[in-house]
Amino acid sequence: MKKFDKTILVTGGAGFIGSHVLRLFVNKYPQYQIVNLDALTYAGNLENIKDLEGKDNYVFEKGDIRDKNFLKNFFEKYNFDGVIHLAAESHVDRSIENPLAFVETNVIGTVNLLNAAKEAWKDNFKDKLFYHISTDEVYGSLGKTGLFTEETPYDPHSPYSASKAASDHFVRSYHDTYGLPALISNCSNNYGPNQFPEKLIPLFVHNIKNNKELPVYGDGQYTRDWLYVIDHARAIDMLFHQGKPGDTYNIGGFNEFTNIDLVHLLCDLMDKKLGREEGSSRKLIRFVKDRPGHDKRYAIDASKINRELGWKPSVDFEEGLSRTIDWYLENEEWLNRVTSGEYQKYYEQMYKDR
Ligand code: NAD
Ligand code: DAU
Questions:
Q1: pLDDT tens for residues 252-295?
Q2: Which domains does the chain have, with CATH numbers?
Q3: With contact defined as beta carbons under 8 Å apart, do 158 and 145 qualify?
Q4: Is 295 in the pocket of ligand 2 (CB under 6 A)?
Q5: What amino acid positions are annotated as catalytic residues?
């Protein structure tokens, strides 16, 4: 008798969003076997999911989606019913330094995974699903008004968003050409615990704590739509179970902030939490050279997923931001280790006898 109802592959589960998705699925669905495939790049950290180690329905496999031979054997080893694909190079600034790394993982890696799924499922696509996690950045940049809908034409500007757009096109093409049951969601900026401190919020929390300068790009008048990471994981759960293959869904926070307003809020909250004089953290702000190709404004119209599945954000922004700051302040060791590469040693130690 089969021990589990389904076996689901989550790629990139040691990263920021992937770790929250894994935790939700492993705990909520004991009847599913959840396999986490991650290459453990600088952004992948097994400490993020330490609490899942040893769970009966959870398996970690170290592997690289750029390696198609590895994927072929891997799909033969596990008889996957579904794939939730999060593994990616995810930082815009890094993509400006090294675009090819983004093509290799985000485009070629995704096509490798699509091929592996298509081959493994070729006799029967029924009840299978390839779910690709994408970003609102594929839509480009908005003016002062308007929202990204699922019909907004793609217009990426950074090598990161271009690579995500290309991967989305490939996923859609595998659905349309081969009938592979595939779905895509495009989400706005996530924030929360376990985000690598190269991204705005964790970087600035770290810098405020250590009285270091806060490098705000350009004039700081760039707008992002922020969503608490656990609300994204909830949306992924709903879409995996109830989304329509072939469809695209936008996910967002209905929560726009200019970077400078967000940084001010962060400074004021941190002053209170650290018992510092009001206004002292704002003095750390420095306006620095802008990011090339910097998109002016992102804002998501998430009415489709709300209408069809009843999803909406559950965590209010100030509450989520406050929780997030508390997490980083309480997990200073985590922050020190990920910034020092110590967590690679943790991996070697944890897995040396396996
Ligand atoms: P992250 O950088 O924190 O994590 C990425 C994970 O993928 C890491 O664990 C890394 O080790 C793994 N990985 C990278 N290259 C790999 C490879 N070649 N093979 C196997 N594993 C590999 O990223 P994140 O912020 O958690 O983003 C996850 C996904 O969600 C990405 O696809 C990203 O484009 C998308 N997304 C992110 C946001 C956001 O705000 N962070 C918003 C919308 C969509
Ligand atoms: O919109 C979804 C995207 O959000 C995801 O697809 C990406 O993976 C994720 O990294 C994020 O991209 P952004 O470029 O919006 O995030 P980042 O945290 O890098 O920057 C947020 C804003 O803050 C952006 O306008 C650039 C600005 N910024 C960022 C950093 C790191 C600064 O002003 N200073 C900084 O030091």
A1: 999 999 999 999 999 999 999 999 999 999 999 999 999 999 99
A2: 6-190+228-252+297-314+343-351 (3.40.50.720)
A3: no
A4: no
A5: 136-137, 160
